[in-house]
Amino acid sequence: MTEPHNGNIAVRCSGCGVHLQTENPELPGFIPEKALDREPVICQRCFRIKNYNESSSVTVDQDEFLALLSKIGDKDALVIHIVDLFDFDGSIISGLQRFVGNNPVLLAVNKTDLLPKVTNWNKVRNWVQKQAKEQGLRTVDVVLCSAKQNQGFDRLLELVGTYRGDRDVYVVGGTNVGKSTLINRLIRDYSDLEQELTTSRYPGTTLDMVNIPLDDGKAIIDTPGIVYPWRFSEIVSRKDLAAIMPEKPLKPAVYQLNSGQTLFFGGMARFDFVEGDRQSFTCFISTALDIHRTKLERADDLYRDHLGELLSPPTREDAADMPEWTRHEFRIKRGSQSDVFISGLGWIKVNGENGALVAVHAPKGIRVLIRPSLI
Fold first, then answer.
1. Which positions fall inside the CP-type G domain (predicted)?
2. CATH 3.80.10.10 matches 59-226
3. What would the pLDDT profile of 233-272 be if each residue is shown by its tens digit?
4. Model pTM score
5. N or C: which end of the chain has fewer CB within 10 A?
């Protein structure tokens, strides 16, 4: 084994094909010298992915991600788009179809374990199909799954076999949607144990892909997780992420409100019932986030005086690093079953039959919208 003066080794990683080097752990192909005798010889990155389930953790901004997506449209591929059911409208890739062209799209809807156990799954599936269609997405199939409980993945793998043919498979999705869990399952089911990963890195960019070679010479390609700035998960501190992202099934919290009442969700956002008959509102929010009810006329003062204390998280210091709040007003039509959706935080179902005028205050840039009720 010859080693040039620059630290490169005249051997390629058997996992990703990159030239191995022993000098800089920050550069592609790094391998500790003591690992050179291992079989197979793989770089540190491939070793970590293989042994610690560390799939691609590199994220990209929207422009880079869309540039990557546009290349898929030129290929003959099956696209798996994985989304987060808890944050469906915040994690679905708007306009995906125009980038992937005529390639079939398989929609994998993760985190079904977060919905209440009495959920009607046929209705959820129909809701997902309708919402995806409204986003212009033509899906060949929809799979409801839970990475946490390992449910639905057998069905997903079955459909990959059905629709793949002799195509490559591209897996696309945002951050925190469970994409790496899916990729690791695909690795176990489809790849050669000794050479299960090919990491393709493009110098000078933040793009990073993991290629899982298949027996027929094709590959499953994990694209980077796209960071969407309109999701709460992208603006809160790391310690507050656990409070807003539920780990257990949601427990619907029902509030009977008169007009002129407000609900605070910690200090993250607030919901105002501005006008309408007394009615019930059901909050689907992480149980780790306290909900505080007050009068609308006192809401501004309460936020000013008690942010970071009664209204927390965030702390007052962390709140200073978040965008100022923006007010969003919605008129709910009489007789409609609607959700007021706050991306990454959850949603409030408006149950009344008489209509209502409501408002949401949330950090500027966070996606807030009205949608047909999920449940």
1. 66-229
2. no
3. 888 887 888 889 898 999 999 999 999 999 999 999 999 9
4. 0.80
5. N
